[in-house]
Amino acid sequence: MLDFLIKILIYIIPMYIANSGAMLFGGKTPMDLNIKFIDGKSILGPGKTFKGTSIGIVLGTGGAFCLEFFFPSLTAGISPDFFMLGFALSIGAILGDIAGSFFKRRNNIPRGTEVLFLDQLDFVIGGMILGTIYYLPGFYEALLIGAGTIIIHKITNYLAFKIKLKKVPW
Question: How far is 127 from 130, CA to CA, in rounded Å?
Answer without folding.
Answer: 5
